[in-house]
Structure formats: C-alpha cells, structure tokens
Amino acid sequence: MAEVILKKVEKEYPNGFKAVHKIDLNIKDGEFMVFVGPSGCAKSTTLRMIAGLEDITDGEIYIGNKLVNNLEPKDRGIAMVFQNYALYPHMTVYENMAFGLKMAKVPKIEIDKRVKEAAEKLEITDLLDRKPKEMSGGQRQRVAVGRAIVRKPDVFLFDEPLSNLDAKLRVSMRVRITQLHKQLKAEGQTATMIYVTHDQVEAMTMGDRICVLNYGKIMQVDTPLNLYNFPKNKFVAGFIGSPSMNLVEAILLEENNAFFVVLDNDMKLPLPTEKFERVKSYVGKKIWFGIRPENIGNKLTNPEESPKKIIGKVNIVEQMGNEEFIHFSIGKTQYSSRVAVENSCNLQFGNISEFYFDMDKCHIFDFETEENVSLIN
Ligand SMILES: Nc1ncnc2c1ncn2[C@@H]1O[C@H](COP(=O)(O)OP(=O)(O)O)[C@@H](O)[C@H]1O
Ligand SMILES: [Mg+2]
Asked: What is the pLDDT of residues 112-152, one digit of tens each?
C-alpha cells in the first residue's frame, strides 16, 4: 500500500514567504496524480516536501500509512525524476542506473537484472555503455526514469520531467510514462505516481486525477473530465482547456420570469431553466460568464433562428486544418469560437456574423469569490 496523504501541510520558507497554505490531499494507492498550476504556485515545493527534500512547516505527510515528517528521503520509499535529469556525467547509463542500488548494497546479480529489465522497458538497452553527453535530451530523460524504476519505489515523483524536450518528443515521452504506469501496475508493483507540470495538456492526458494549484492553495482535485466539465471556480475554468474558456464580465437579468445574461452592447442570452434556482440571488448583479469556444457555433452549426444567437465582428480566424478558431468581438469584449472545418463559414477579418451560444454548457461565477455558482449537483 502506498497511499500518500497530506494533512494541513504548510510551508513557510526561512525568508517568511508562505508558499503552501494548509493543503489536504489523499492520493490513492497506485494512482497517477498530476499537480498542475502556473509557475510559482508551489508544485515543486509540495513535491519536495513529499520527497523529504524540503522541511514541512506544519501538518503531516503519510506515505503508505506511515508518518514520514521526520524520515530521510532515502527511507520514504520514493524515487524522483527531475527536469534537468541529474545524471552523473562521468558514469555510463548502466552505472547511472545501478548507482542507487549499489549504495543500498543490493547484490550485483539483482542490480544487473533490474537495470536490464528497466532498460528494456524504456528501449535504451543499446545505450547502456554510453555517457550522458553522448545522448539526446529524450534519451537522457529515459535514463533518468530508468534510474527511478530500478529502485522499485512505492511512489514515483516527477518534477516537470519533460520541460526540456521539444514539443514532439514531449508527446511521445508522455505516452511512454503513462504506459509505464499501467505496465508497472499490471506487473503488480504499487507505482503510485505524482507528476508535476505547468502544462494543462500533459495534466489532462496523463492524470487519473489532477490537483490544480494556485498561490499555494488547492483549487480543485478531480478527474480530467470532471475538471473540464464542472470547474469549481473561475481559475480552474480558465486554466483547464485549450483554447481557454471565454470568461467575461456580465450582468444577470430577470425579465418575465426568465433569466438572461447581459453582455456588452446589451446583448442578451437566455439562461436555461435548470440553472434559475442556483443563480437567482445574482439577479441584478455583476457576474463572470464562462463558455468554452466549442460551445459557440456559427450559422452552419445552428441554422435555425434562436434567441441564443448574437451578432459579433470577426477579428481573426486561426486555421488548424481540422477546425478553426474564430476570434470575434461583441462590443469591446473578445470571444473565441471553435468550429469544425466542415462547418466553416469562411469568415474573415471585419465580417459581421451570427454566433450561437450553447447556453446549456455555460457557467456563472460569483464576481467576488469567483466560485462557480451554476453547477447543478
Ligand atoms: N528557498 C526559497 N525561499 C523562499 N521562497 C521560495 C524558495 N523556493 C521557492 N520559493 C517560492 O515559493 C513559491 C513556490 O515555488 P515553487 O514550489 O518552486 O513553484 P512551482 O514549482 O509551482 O513553479 C514561489 O513563489 C517561489 O518563489
Ligand atoms: Mg517547479
């Protein structure tokens, strides 16, 4: 069992800066948990506290039911992979992978077996005699992962391991790491993984669950799809998804027992009845209105007349090949819409066109607390 449990964990650095504010988190045995958030939100600090590389100011950390606050990193059953690989330059790949085991006095035969097995899993058997400088960044990172695997840790900790790789290699390495997690689990290893990234696409594609952090606080912990569909607050709504959710200031209005979201230029969009109850206390108030680009269509995606259509002015169209992103404005406010190419209206800069808002998919956030007040439980 290698659950990782954080109870009211805090971190204040010696200079008085409070990086982590009382976070509570339960990472399940064998789970792939991703920490995601903007630079400086304390992803590394939190990971390093779990690893034992950073003291905890307050709270408790448990790994596999054992309180580890005062345990040395080497006694926590963890292995860590860093962004900069941290390989020993004078050692071969084989020696780099074997080093930790040698220090732990594992018998030579066992070391040899584990190094060769790990090398095979990562397809680096051909590289075992090379030195780090004779390899590409991607190969070095595979060696760094291999060095973690041979230790057979209960918990793998990854701190932005793919950030130094080019875009294409990042995609193939992220698939490899996800597969590795499944493979280790299939072989009966615990393989709880905690993976830090600032890249929401990595988070979405790799995580069983994602913990979204901002300013040292947990914004939401959930599966990728739940974060995408049911963001608890404006931060998560804007951070998860690419291109980002449209988030604009608006006013909520009640007219003849119906609710409307009023945008710039007094453009009104009707809110679906299911959401009335949840948001009624916001009538007459400023709110944040959120809608994803794929939930704004054009007159081909929705040819009928509808009160959910409004007129906007096209600023720029980004062609993706299979779809296009149309950036348009209503009054002074900018929006993005995302439409499949087969529904393209061939819009261009300056065109005035209809845009259809799928209001069933919209979100309303409290203007002050930024909490999502339109989620229907
Ligand atoms: N040794 C330190 N002393 C003081 N502040 C630090 C120290 N290390 C990190 N910080 C601050 O703590 C915050 C979180 O840092 P970090 O965990 O590295 O963020 P992330 O990994 O999410 O980019 C940042 O504001 C950073 O400047
Ligand atoms: Mg970091």
From this structure: 999 999 999 888 999 999 999 999 888 999 999 999 999 99
The residue whose C-alpha atom lies closest to atom 4 belonging to ligand 1 is 13
Beta-bridge partner residues of 326:
317, 337
Please choose, from the candidates 308, 295, 264, 281, the residue with its C-alpha nearest in 3D space to the C-alpha of residue 363: 295
Q: Torsion over CA of 203, 37, 185 and 153, rounded to 10 degrees?
A: 150
Report in angstroms the alpha-carbon separations of 220 from 34, 200, 234, 240, 362. Answer: 12, 14, 11, 11, 19
pLDDT digits (tens, 9 = 90+) for 298-313: 888 887 888 888 999 9
Taking CB atoms and a 6 Å cutoff, what residues make up the pocket around ligand 1?
13, 15, 17, 19, 37, 39-45
Looking from the CA of residue 213, the nearest atom of ligand 1 is 22
Question: What is the rounded CA–CA span in Å between residue 173 and residue 194?
Answer: 16
Q: Is residue 203 within 8 Å of 36, Cβ to Cβ?
A: yes
Sort residue 350 into left (φ over 0), alpha (ψ -120 to 50) or beta: left
Paired tokens of 59: 């709270």
Structural tokens at position 375 = 């989620």
CB 116 within 8 A of CB 146: no
State yes or no: pLDDT of 169 exceeds 80.
Answer: yes
Average pLDDT over residues 325-337: 95
Max CA separation in the chain (angstroms) = 81
Can you give the pLDDT at residue 328?
96
